[in-house]
Fold this sequence. Notes:
Strand order of the largest sheet of chain A: 2-3-1-4
Shape of chain A: rod-shaped
Largest sheet of chain A: 4 strands, antiparallel
Number of helices of chain B: 7
Largest interface: A-B, 34 and 36 residues
CATH class of the domain at 2-80 and 156-217 in chain B: Alpha Beta
Bound molecules: adenosine-5'-triphosphate, magnesium ion
Number of helices of chain A: 11
Oligomer: heterodimer
Distance between the termini of chain B: 16 Å
Strand order of the largest sheet of chain B: 6-7-8-3-9-10
Distance between the termini of chain A: 33 Å
Amino acid sequence: MKRAVKPVKPKPQLRQEIPQNKIAGGDFFDKLHAYRDLHAHALFSSLGRLVDKPFTTALTVGVLAISIALAACFYLLVENLEQLTGTIESSNQISLFLKDAVTEAEARRLVEKISKNHEIAEIKLIGKAQALTEFKANSGLDAALDALEGNPLPVVLEVLPTPAQSNVDALKRLQQALLQYPEVDEAQMDMQWLERMQSIIRLAEQATESISILLGLGVLFITGNTIRLELHNRREEVVIAKLVGATNRFIQRPFLYGGFWIGFLSGVAAWFIVTAIMLLLWRSVENLSLLYEGSFHLRFLDYGESVFLVLLSSGLGVAGSWAVLAYQLRQLRPE
Amino acid sequence: MLKFDNVSKRYSEAGDVLSNISFHLERGEMAFLTGHSGAGKSTLFKLIALIERASRGQIYLGGHNVSHAQDRQIPFLRRKMGLIFQDFKLLQDRTVFDNVALPLAVAGYGHHEIARKVRAALDKVGLSGKEKKYPLTLSGGEQQRVGIARAVVNKPPMILADEPTGNLDPELAAEIMTLFTRFQQVGVTVLIVSHDIALIQKMDRRVLTLDHGRLVAG
Ligand SMILES: Nc1ncnc2c1ncn2[C@@H]1O[C@H](COP(=O)(O)OP(=O)(O)OP(=O)(O)O)[C@@H](O)[C@H]1O
Ligand SMILES: [Mg+2]
């Protein structure tokens, strides 16, 4: 009663109060930290709410984690396919058939000339005699060939481009360049399957993009709906807060953090799911890789991608809640 | 402090619930708003609290015309009034302390200031020592006093109460009324909605009477 007689202090006095309050260790810093405390409190109380309802939270996070993990797996699939074709392409060789008149000595000079091209890793010269022996052994046409006069086979250069030249366009350019040498009659490479592989990868990339967008939208909708239910459950609290002067921003805060936690937990769970799947595949891929002379290794999510995954899912959680809150809080009036 | 100038409220389903209401409450004045059930008392309360908006006419709060206040201004206007409800509107899963602290937390006060002000408010309504209790473990009169403490904790210049004693026995009702007169004595404007004629007569204050949405006395 006696206290109530004190008049309400007008706000401007606050500034004059600062020195006193510093000494008292009191409410200047108190007020300064109030805002930060509010955020910290909202952050942890919203986490507390999720932990209070472990079953509901586990269900939501589970659904979201599977969606996010699916998108990440598609991404890794494409990445690994690309890497795989990379290793195979590098063994893609161009066979140069030299003109009949070119002797082996001339061919050897040509090899030296071509070797200066930094796009080429290795050149193997197959002489006429060697070519004939190999051909005889492989074709089973010894008798027929023996009947021929002389050696009808040309000198062949097997050109192995550097891995940097592994895509179709670069190889084609190299092929054209090699054709310019007068000694070269024909430059052959079998690129059909390579082209097919690359168009499959392009398709897979596009599919991954669309699927990721769909799954991302799913995450947005699911967190939005979860937050909508939470808002519904706490409707009374929200109404009362509004009646005592809470701004929409104040009311939104714990819900936005709720969305953040759902997204964050889902992102972390998704990372574990993806890693588990990759570990399961790892052994069989390593075995397979041995058949390809160990040149292929399964690629996991790297550090940056893992951080991006968690950030993205947290962001989607916040965005989903924000969209729902912006709409619902405008609708929700006291009474 | 509070001025109605030809205010009407129309609901599309119910027609004009309030018609051409004009009155003026001075700063520090205490008044009762009474009338039969369905007269429009709660509607008038909601207009002041900006829970509903007037269909016609102007409403002034502390000299400001709030008839066209924007949604984002409303929270700040509500911080200047203490609202008290017949059904208390307390958060059952929060302690008495947290309930009373809500208007301060919402306004961004720090912990120490909140603790100090909440204790002072609970002290005023005679509930010191009950801050750790939950509303459901309290009697009706105690719960209503928690509601009052929450309404006054921020020291608003105006208190509005809609049937604050509706659920209480006469003794408790009188006690709550005494509490309101104390706030009036320190300069707070108080408007109490009530249809308890006997109680109103005992209090001997200005009485605004509504009859079918029209102000017939006061
Ligand atoms: N949201 C609404 N929509 C339509 N009509 C409404 C609404 N709120 C109130 N009314 C009508 O307005 C009239 C006045 O209601 P109000 O609640 O203001 O009465 P009251 O004086 O508070 O009555 P009581 O003493 O019973 O509480 C009633 O006829 C009611 O049906
Ligand atoms: Mg009423």
